Automatic annotation (TrEMBL):
Domain of life: Eukaryota
A GO MF term: oxidoreductase activity
Keyword NADP attached: yes
Entry-linked SUPFAM superfamilies: NAD(P)-binding Rossmann-fold domains
Record bears the keyword Cell membrane: no
Annotated keywords: NADP, Oxidoreductase
Protein name: NmrA-like domain-containing protein
Membership in a protein family: Belongs to the NmrA-type oxidoreductase family. Isoflavone reductase subfamily.
Gene3D superfamilies: NAD(P)-binding Rossmann-like Domain
PANTHER family in the cross-refs: NMRA-LIKE DOMAIN-CONTAINING PROTEIN, NMRA-LIKE FAMILY PROTEIN
InterPro entries: NAD(P)-bd_dom_sf, NmrA/Isoflavone_reductase-like
Length: 238
């Protein structure tokens, strides 16, 4: 009987691993098909030192060097940064992928809103994600996917039950004060998604991606609530 040839692992590079990135790392790292490396501006005590590659400024040259040395095939960004820096950093990531030998699949940091119907929302996206999407649309040589889900269901959990850190005044539920924020009038439907469902979308892209350009939305906001996000927010007790 012929000995079955062992399939070579893919190396997945994660840039800017924070709360949601920790979920992605743990799921992919537990999968025998993948090696996972982390691109970070600083050391990450939660992860094996051998998996962490320091890139102080996410410069194109630094990211390119890491992609080449690790032979990464996919770059996933969960970078959260000021709007003014988002386009520059993600342009660097994209250019590094374009130059690299093996990394020809890219998932930039999106994860919120409804880009098909309301591409400029949430507010900061008009200054960050929107212009970078235009850059992506004009690029050639890298497969890319935009993943969006709206609210994580983790926002409705006590902090101790989730990696997602609560941000006072931003997330709808404030457990410390036992209050929630109603977006819009309170009558519009609001969708949420489990982080595990978002990871499933990441897997779908890694395993089945054969597209050049695609946009996957795990969530569609109702048009009325999206239009009223900045007009009406009511604090209520529960």
């Amino acid at each position: 009987m012929e000995k079955q040839e062992k399939q070579e692992k893919q190396t997945i590079a994660l840039a800017g691993v924070g709360d949601f990135g920790r979920y992605i790392y743990e799921v992919l790292d537990a999968d025998d098909r993948y090696n996972v490396v982390i691109l970070s501006r600083q050391s990450k005590p939660l992860y094996p030192p051998s998996a962490v590659h320091i890139t102080p400024s996410y410069s194109e040259e630094s990211v390119y060097s890491i992609l080449q040395s690790t032979r990464a095939t996919t770059l996933i960004s969960t970078i959260q940064c000021p709007d003014s820096a988002f386009v520059t950093i993600h342009q660097n990531l994209l250019n590094a992928c374009l130059r690299s030998t093996h990394c020809k699949r890219f998932i930039p940091s999106e994860y919120g809103g409804d880009i098909e119907r309301f591409p400029h929302l949430p507010g900061g996206y008009a200054r960050s994600r929107l212009p970078f999407r235009d850059i992506l649309a004009q690029s050639h040589g890298v497969e890319w996917t935009l993943l969006n889900l709206g609210w994580f269901m983790d926002y409705f959990l006590p902090q101790a039950m989730s990696y997602i850190h609560h941000v006072p005044g931003e997330f709808p539920v404030q457990w410390e004060s036992w209050r929630y924020t109603v977006r819009g009038t309170g009558e519009e439907p609001q969708n949420t998604a489990l982080w595990v469902d978002m990871i499933a979308r990441v897997y779908e892209d890694l395993v089945h991606c054969a597209h050049q350009v695609n946009s996957l939305n795990a969530n569609h906001w109702d048009s009325e609530i999206t239009q009223q996000l900045s007009e009406s927010e009511t604090d209520s007790s529960f």
